[in-house]
Amino acid sequence: MSIEEFIANEVKSNDVVLFMKGTPQFPQCGFSGQVVQILDHIGVGYKGLNVLESAELRNGIKTFSNWPTIPQLYVKGEFVGGCDIIREMFQAGELQQLFTEKGVVVAA
Asked: Which of 4, 32, 50, 85 stands the most exposed, by the fewest C-beta atoms within 10 Å?
């Protein structure tokens, strides 16, 4: 399986996927940590993939999304954005609305 196939499979088979530095339990960069805090605050289930474990994954996700930075959030197979976009959407209430529109269950 190529890295592109692996990434495509992950974003298709999980409702919410966060490509991040570190893990949801132990983020290893401030931007990844901010997105984890937002997702945890909203109460949405998600899969975190640590790009630090694989240079192939770290480079592959940037090519896959045509987006140069990490973290990257996918909802229902669709690229949503990085830390700044996620933070702005959350503050405006748009992130919670996106999850609702896509049928993703949130606890908050």
From this structure: 4
Contact 70, 21 (CB under 8 A): yes
Stretch 73-80: mean pLDDT: 97
pTM equals: 0.96
Q: Which pLDDT tens digit goes with each residue over 29-64?
A: 999 999 999 999 999 999 999 999 999 999 999 999
> Is 108 within the bounds of a domain?
no
pLDDT value of residue 108: 57
Q: Is residue 107 part of a domain?
A: no
CATH of the domain at 56: 3.40.30.10
Kindly list the distances between the CA atom of residue 33 and the CA atoms of 1, 6, 8, 66, 103, in Å, as whole numbers in the listed order.
30, 24, 24, 22, 25
Q: Which residues pair with 5 in a beta bridge?
A: none
Candidates 78, 60, 53, 82; CA nearest to 70 is 82
Sheet order of strands, 78-81 included: 47-50, 16-20, 72-75, 78-81
